[in-house]
Amino acid sequence: MLYFAYGSNMDPDQMRSRCPHHVVVGLGALREHRLIFPLNSPRWGGGVASVQPHHGETVWGVLYELTPEDMKGLDEREGFLGPGNQHNVYDREHVTVELVRPDDGSFPRRVRADAYIARPSNPSAPSRRYLDTLLAGARHHRLPEEYIAVLSAHVVVAEPG
Length: 161
Hints:
Blueprint: E1 2-5, H1 12-18, E2 23-41, E3 46-65, H2 68-77, E4 90-102, E5 109-118, H3 128-140, H4 145-152
Antiparallel strand pairs: 1-3, 2-3, 2-4, 4-5
């Protein structure tokens, strides 16, 4: 199944540990959406990413092919208990993504993929560690430089101390 990652799951080391059987399909662009940080994560020490509709903006990410086992593990990791479950931290929703740089040399095309959309809870700026993880993944997969600059410009939470 296709999965569109736009947050920390773009990081290759994190994906290897979370989804050992994943295959990178290529880069994806979620048009008419923007990246937001609507959910505070104690584990990351700040906000974690989600997307929301927003005219004129694009969220870039990575499309992965996942096995059912990998998807099940990711569901657990992202706090997705099932469709419509009131206790979901993230909902897994279908999105239409432009596969703009397929790794198999095929033509760019629109595809349907699953993405995790956060249920807002205590919005916060991301931590430096979290934002650096997003940037590492974005650079590793060679997302557009303009988008990496947008990611880099996000304000981060102040470090304690």
